[in-house]
Design brief:
HIT family, subunit A; alpha+beta; binds 5,6-dihydrouridine-5'-monophosphate; 24% helix; three-stranded mixed beta sheet; binds zinc ion; 14 strands; globular; 6 helices
Length: 342
């Protein structure tokens, strides 16, 4: 076998079937250049101009209740609507479209404007996980909802409109691209090996320390072998569970523990409230059994070298394949260092 930390190579993402180019020779050291820190903007616990803070007015005139834990509402500017009639068209297999219906919601994690997952207690994060599980069930049981996507855009760098801790849920009538690719791979791996791809990957990484970041009895966080973003991570559960609503109370506590710790490590990496997009991939809610599905969580952070230097997906990455210099193993090493710093 060639040396993964020296030779240029490409790595397969077995969950999507896509390849990422790795060029470790461009950085024998994982670190190049200066590490500047961004000015940290301290947030107030309550912001009278925030549309997510308790009691405040939202853009369309509705007032939030004076909530004291989590708060869920229907997005005032939803990308999907429930009453979109079912229809499609196709001209010469060139001009192809289908209507899409769905429900979009916003979940506030806390009444406190100044908190983030990294700064919430495990009990507070557990309350968020319970909301996610309830939302998955509530939205997923509806006839026209075949997929529930829970995701968080954190930080202005990722397009989040507000620092108030919150996530979004888009529940749609079709299964979006990313989970569709993963589902094909999960099925195909199961057909070939009679085992679940993520159960196997969990076991593999348990015995290969170089990509491990942190974990507990129920969950493991790794920089996946095929990571594209410099500090991308994957949270995998030990047990084969298809969706968040099927996690046991102990597993939910374990999930809260890794979410809190991971986001805390991220914040320490560049001394900044770390931006990312995170999302939970779960079984479709199309009424089928989906024994192939193993829920998991992706964190895709854009930062490369410091609080202000981000990775751009441009040039070869847009035209060819994603590429990285720092290896997944080196990134995991950096994350382990800051995780043990607390
Ligand atoms: P982001 O920070 O990820 O953009 O999420 C904020 C969402 O909140 C966004 O989808 C919605 C936007 O449509 N929103 C409301 O529902 N009501 C408002 O008063 C402002 C923003
Ligand atoms: Zn707020």
């Amino acid at each position: 076998m060639f040396n993964l930390s020296e030779s240029a190579h490409r790595r397969l993402n077995p969950l999507t079937g896509e390849w990422v180019l790795v060029s470790p020779h461009r950085t024998q050291r994982p670190w190049l250049g200066q590490v500047e820190t961004a000015a940290v903007e301290a947030q107030p616990a309550y912001d009278p101009t925030c549309y997510l803070c308790p009691g405040n007015e939202r853009a369309r005139g509705v007032h939030n209740p004076k909530y004291d834990s989590t708060f869920v509402f229907d997005n005032d500017f939803p990308a999907l609507l429930s009453d979109t009639p079912n229809s499609d068209f196709n001209e010469k297999d060139l001009i192809v479209a289908q209507t899409e219906s769905g429900i979009c919601r916003v979940v506030c994690f806390s009444p406190r404007h100044d908190l983030t997952l990294a700064r919430m207690t495990p009990q507070e994060i557990r309350a968020v996980i319970d909301v996610w599980a309830d939302q998955f069930r509530d939205l997923g049981k509806r006839d026209h909802i075949n997929y529930v996507q829970i995701f968080e855009n954190r930080g202005a760098a990722m397009g989040a409109s507000n620092p108030h801790p919150h996530c979004q849920i888009w529940a749609s009538s079709s299964v979006p691209n990313e989970p569709t690719k993963e589902q094909l791979s999960m099925r195909s791996y199961k057909d070939r090996h009679d085992r679940c791809i993520l159960c196997e990957y969990f076991l593999y990484e348990s015995t290969h320390s170089e990509r491990q970041v942190l974990g507990n009895e129920h969950f493991q966080v790794v920089v996946p072998f095929w990571a594209v973003w410099p500090f991308e991570t994957l949270i995998i559960g030990k047990r084969h569970v298809a969706d968040i609503s099927a996690l046991s109370p102990e597993e939910r506590d374990g999930y809260a523990d890794v979410l809190g710790k991971l986001t805390g490590c991220y914040d320490r990496l560049f001394n900044v409230s770390f931006p990312y997009s995170m999302g939970i991939h779960e079984r479709p809610t199309d009424g089928e059994a989906h024994p192939e599905w193993h829920m998991h969580t992706h964190f895709y952070p854009p930062l490369l070298r410091s609080a202000t230097i981000r990775k751009f997906m441009v040039g070869f990455e847009m035209m060819g394949s994603p590429q990285r210099d720092i290896t997944a193993e080196a990134a995991a090493g950096r994350l382990r260092e800051v995780c043990s710093m607390k």
